[in-house]
Amino acid sequence: MTRLAAFFCVLALILPAPAHAWGFYAHRKTAEIAEANVSDETRAKIRRLVRSAADLGTPDCDLANMEDASVWPDCVRRTRWRWGYTAAWHYRTAPICEAYEPRANCPGGNCVTAQIERSHRILADESLPDHVRLEALAFMVHFAGDVHMPLHSGDKDDRGGNDREADYGIVPGLNLHWIWDGPLAERAISDPADPVARRYSQQERAQLGVSADGGDPAEWGRESWQISRDFIYPTAFDTGDVCGQELPDSTALTQEDIERGAPIARRRVQQAGLRIAQLLESAFAPGPLEDPEAPRP
Predict the structure, then answer these.
(1) CATH number of domain containing 36
(2) 154: helix, coil or strand?
(3) pTM for the predicted model, two decimal places
């Protein structure tokens, strides 16, 4: 009975509600990383914008700081009658068995990559009211996190793994998307001895593949698509030929699979946070990105 009780305690801890996966823990970590890697001026401009949160009329969804901003789009989406139209903005699925097309599957700009660009443009427009720019900030921060979660891009006729039942070690009955959205990401960034939320040197950024200009959302989507194609699906289904066969509807991730996947999930969270920082710097200071580590006069 003691073992059974312990099992259900662990199960409860790693089975968050769907909106509380990347939408809670990993998203908040990307915001912490971003805030640690922007200039003081940018932090001050963010603080000014969040003072207008009441004008958005979303009292059930806090928006008082960057961490709140990183999860606000998932919170408001639950009010479907008002925000349901934003659901398609959180992903842009790209079939892993076809060539990657950066502009496909995005009708009318209703996909994650297009909405990052749109939100960045709105945030940078100082002629707009603060609450309009704050909404754009929240969408931009959140969607830049979403595009880094591999299964928000990679897909094999299963809604980014949502339709593939998968066990997570000893925990049964999840799905492949949920695992990468929640427990695997949380495991990857939860080591207190090696925190992800800190300031990063230029050398560390280069090692993480974060270019000086940050790159563009379509390329971040390509990275996620490639991870799905080359690692997630082959590892989950123990095959190097995911495109030459029909995959079963269910599978199980072993402890070894989880340990191999965790560094990949961690790297994606780090990349997302640093690229969000670059988006913020460029939105608040249009023109060449400044180095937040450079000495100030």
Answers:
(1) 1.10.575.10
(2) strand
(3) 0.89
